[in-house]
TrEMBL record:
It comes from Aquilegia coerulea. Residues 1-20 form the signal peptide. Pfam families: SURNod19. This is Stress up-regulated Nod 19 protein. The chain crosses the membrane at residues 415-436. Keywords: Membrane, Signal, Transmembrane, Transmembrane helix. InterPro entries: Stress_up-reg_Nod19.
């Protein structure tokens, strides 16, 4: 099966100038699967790619998304391991564009964000990072993420999707972890992408690994550029009314809840930026004490519902993250899975997956207005810069009910999908706020990545 895919992949790539393309389509028991390639990007040793591809290939029509995964592959369609190309993140954003605009030139767009409370920094629909290959992302029946409903598009607009890929080539670099953690000295940077000076205490993070930056190479290392793609796989079913819609929430442990004193603008709550920084730092522990960094925050959920899925996003050093209810009950715990070898999907020293939660339908409920506690534990045996503590939730506002049981039979999820799910959701997180930077730069707040 795997070989088949690769063969098809290679055939399509050979001798062609594919920019973005559908590599495979298949349908089984009503579940449709499409595999696409992002536009090609080219990385030399130590270099960084952080691009935005508008109007990407994506399933059309009124559908329920069931699963989303991605990975970096080379020109032969072979999976590229994280120690060669570190996938910092990939993010898929949903938006509306004017029907009259083509994908190259879109004058007016309206983004459609997730339902979380950090929309200005984390507006994406999907996204994961290095953990992409081994993090489950499927949405169990009878649930689905409803998209593409023409009735939801404003007049004169169509729904489209764009992709942000942030990848760091760490072949031949002096400090692999340092380059993936975007340490500013390794990138020889004192100013950001927009030529603004960095804060003197800013040691590392996204401001220091923007598109086309270069991490320090070992003396004499011969850099050979290579062509890469983000291969992304989407599964969906056609929308039917028996599917129960779920909402996507992305929570951030750096969210301090600061919202006050800043006015709403046309786009939304700009004030949210103040509290949702996305990245933080883990200070190294001293000689005494436990080398553990525990970060916690309280987040008020404007609207509640039944938790259908949960997964955290952490970077190297991350151990575990958990979400608790107001009464202290555990909502979901998500642990980092580290690789143990060399091959793609099992790279030693990297987070190659996060464990996920699929509570029994109806068993885990969040109330409207409930204050949740998000906790993110990292090892602090060394300093880490630009780490994250995000939490993804899928929430159904309706309870599961008997009427829905027969749906489970008609859209049964095939077993082989478990294997495919591996390929994972992880990187999308950050693109969201990078995009905001572009579109909302003038709104009077300083974005972390702007
Ligand atoms: C680092 O940046 C400075 C100033 O921009 C430049 O003079 C120097 O050559 C750079 N060093 C390296 C190793 O690229
Ligand atoms: C994080 O570490 C603290 C201290 O050891 C522990 O009490 C807590 O349970 C940990 N969090 C999770 C989610 O395991």
């Amino acid at each position: 099966m795997q070989n088949c895919w690769l063969l098809l992949f290679a055939t399509l790539l050979l001798g062609s100038t594919i920019q973005a393309s559908q590599v495979l389509y298949r349908e089984e028991n009503g579940v449709k699967t499409a595999v696409y390639l992002s536009p090609k990007f080219r990385l030399g040793a130590g270099s960084v790619e952080n691009k935005f591809y508008h109007n990407i290939d994506f399933p059309k029509g009124h559908i329920a998304l069931k699963e989303f995964s991605a990975e970096v592959v080379d020109e032969e369609g072979i999976s590229v391991p994280l120690h060669e190309t570190y996938l910092h993140h990939w993010v898929i954003m949903r938006y509306y564009a004017l029907t009259t605009d083509n994908g190259e030139k879109e004058l007016k767009t309206i983004s459609v964000k997730n339902s979380g409370v950090c929309q200005n920094t984390l507006g994406q629909y999907f996204g994961l990072g290095s953990e992409t290959r081994r993090t489950d992302t499927y949405v169990p029946d009878p649930y689905g993420i409803e998209v593409g409903n023409p009735a939801d598009s404003p007049d004169g607009y169509v729904e489209r999707w764009y992709l942000n890929v942030h990848a760091i080539d760490t072949r031949g670099v002096v400090d692999r972890l340092g380059c993936t953690e975007c340490k500013c000295d390794l990138y020889n940077l004192t100013r950001d992408e927009f030529d603004r000076p960095l804060r003197s205490d800013y040691i590392g993070g996204l401001l220091c690994c923007y598109d086309q930056t270069q991490c320090r190479l070992r003396e004499g290392f011969q850099s050979i550029k290579r062509n890469l793609y983000l291969k992304y796989t989407v599964k969906w079913v056609d929308w039917v009314d028996t599917i129960v819609p779920v909402k996507i929430y992305i929570l951030d442990v750096t969210d301090t809840g600061e919202r006050k004193g800043v006015a709403r603008n046309s786009v939304g709550l700009t004030a949210q930026m103040a509290g949702c920084k996305v990245e933080y730092e883990v200070e190294p522990c001293g000689v005494s004490g436990e080398c553990l960094d525990i970060k916690k925050t309280s987040i008020v959920m404007p609207k509640g519902g039944y938790v259908i899925y949960g997964a955290a996003h952490q970077h190297t050093g991350g151990i575990v993250s958990a979400l608790y209810g107001e009464d202290g009950r555990m909502i979901c715990t998500s642990r980092a899975i580290y690789g143990e070898g060399k091959e793609a999907g099992n790279e030693a020293g990297y987070i190659v997956g996060m464990t996920t939660c699929y509570p029994q339908p109806g068993s885990v409920k969040i109330s409207d207005g409930e204050t949740l506690v998000l906790e993110s534990n990292y090892s602090s045996s060394q300093r880490h810069t630009g780490v994250m503590g995000l939490f993804y939730l899928l929430i159904a506002e309706q309870p599961p009910n008997n009427i829905l049981l027969h749906v489970q039979e008609t859209i049964k999820f095939p077993m082989y999908s478990w294997a495919l799910i591996f390929l994972g959701l992880t990187i999308a997180f950050i693109a969201g706020f990078s995009y905001m930077r572009r579109n909302e730069r003038n709104e009077g707040y300083q974005s972390l990545v702007a």
